[in-house]
């Protein structure tokens, strides 16, 4: 079987976390949809709370720890990405944003991305389109049309939301899977040891 790698980022702070729960459901639906297409999926799940100190130290020093460096390489080298954040003060969490601040802003070029978010009420659902989607567009990722938001009521008992959430998850997973089938990003991952084309040792000595 053809194999694809799926990175799953969740920025929930609590345990258990509804953010992680949504991320897992999106990942499971994507894996199932890819399997229907004859594609096996390797899933890398990352809870940012586990590397929060490493992320902040990288922001302050400019250098990732070995643990964070491994996570960044795995995420940026994947064939697809699911990114889910809790909504705080009408936008993504600081931890979520800081993680994407410390990675190279070219490393997600052409990456198929499914975005998701959780919050207490559905009033925060628009944050997906005015905060998350523009951020990934800036990073030159390819964001699937369907974003998935889950409010507290979506995890409760009864109500129409219990039917619509699985529908949104299934639709978004199908869109991500369709992009991952043709994903080939190996040539886009920047090599840190490759010199910029403008670098000229001879020219630098000639100026002295």
Automatic annotation (TrEMBL):
Superkingdom in the source lineage: Bacteria
Top EC class, one word: oxidoreductase
Keywords from the named record: Flavoprotein, FMN, Oxidoreductase
Keyword Oxidoreductase attached: yes
Known EC number: 1.5.1.38
Classification via InterPro entries: CE1759_FMN_reduct, Flavoprotein-like_sf, FMN_Rdtase-like_dom, NAD(P)H-dep_FMN_reductase
Keyword Protein transport attached: no
Domain NADPH-dependent FMN reductase-like: 6-155
A molecular-function term among this protein's GO annotations: FMN reductase (NADPH) activity
Descriptive protein name: FMN reductase
Organism in which the protein naturally occurs: Glaciibacter psychrotolerans
The organism's taxonomic lineage, starting at the top: Bacteria, Bacillati, Actinomycetota, Actinomycetes, Micrococcales
């Amino acid at each position: 079987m053809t194999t694809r790698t799926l990175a799953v980022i969740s920025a929930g702070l609590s345990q258990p976390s509804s953010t992680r729960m949504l991320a897992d459901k999106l990942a499971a639906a994507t894996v199932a949809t890819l399997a229907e297409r004859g594609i096996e999926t390797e899933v890398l799940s990352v809870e940012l709370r586990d590397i929060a100190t490493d992320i902040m130290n990288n922001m302050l020093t400019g250098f990732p720890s070995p643990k964070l460096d491994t996570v960044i390489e795995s995420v940026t080298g994947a064939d697809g990405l699911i990114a889910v954040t809790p909504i705080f003060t009408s936008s993504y969490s600081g931890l979520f944003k800081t993680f994407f601040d410390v990675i190279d802003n070219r490393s997600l070029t052409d990456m198929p991305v499914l975005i998701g978010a959780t919050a207490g009420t559905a009033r925060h659902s628009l944050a997906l389109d005015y905060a998350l989607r523009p951020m990934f567009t800036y990073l030159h990722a390819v964001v699937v049309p369907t974003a998935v938001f889950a409010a507290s009521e979506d995890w409760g008992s009864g109500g129409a939301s219990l039917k619509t959430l699985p529908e949104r998850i299934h639709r978004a997973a199908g869109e991500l899977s369709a992009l991952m089938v043709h994903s080939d990003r190996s040539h886009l991952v920047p090599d840190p040891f490759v010199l910029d084309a403008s670098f000229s040792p001879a020219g630098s000595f000639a100026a002295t």
